[in-house]
# Entry
Amino acid sequence: MVTQALHTLRDALPSGVRLVAVSKFHPVERLMEAYNAGQRLFGENRPQELAAKAPQMPSDVEWHFIGHLQTNKLKLVLPYVTMVQSVDSFHLLEAINNWCTANSKCIDILLELHLGAEETKTGFTEEEILSIAGEAKEVYEGVPAPLTGVRIRGLMGMATNTDDMSVVEADFARIEALFNKIKALGIPGFDQLSIGMSGDWPLAVRHGATMVRIGTDIFGPREY
# Structure
């Protein structure tokens, strides 16, 4: 099932859109099915689960962390990942930057915009993201700034949890507009927009997604 699901998704996705296989709650055996079918990019959203799975998977797997990350769990995540997609606060941004600086590492990050209507969602406001982007631009222009242990590669967002696709599309249009506004600043490497999941990824692609995060459509229902 996993192999066929991956082939179907890859055939449907435009070139240039990367598929993040969201493997949370699925055992390593299922991840290896995906790996053997050619999948190399996996997303996890629980630190302990990532720390347990990563050493069991082949070394050429690319791990992205896509869930809410507490600063006291950085040591479970940052040694393994190439990107944290879900940087949702100044406190977390500073903590990741400090960890990377102390460990002589630089990690790619995406800034998470609070898109959905739910109050429980986390993320920055548009104004906060524009402020961080301006700070990042100063680094590349030679002005000293604190963000030297991370590379801000783009934005991430989750649409409102609704069956009304017009609401979802409006959410995606909003983050696409912010992404294009920041991209116009000319920050080197700012080129990634991670939006879209199993139920709405075609709309996300229509609004400029460069990565889609898909779990259920690949692995099926959670196994535990």
Observations:
- The longest helix spans residues 165-183.
- The mean pLDDT is 91.
- The first strand starts at residue 18 and ends at 22.
- The two ends are 18 Å apart (CA to CA).
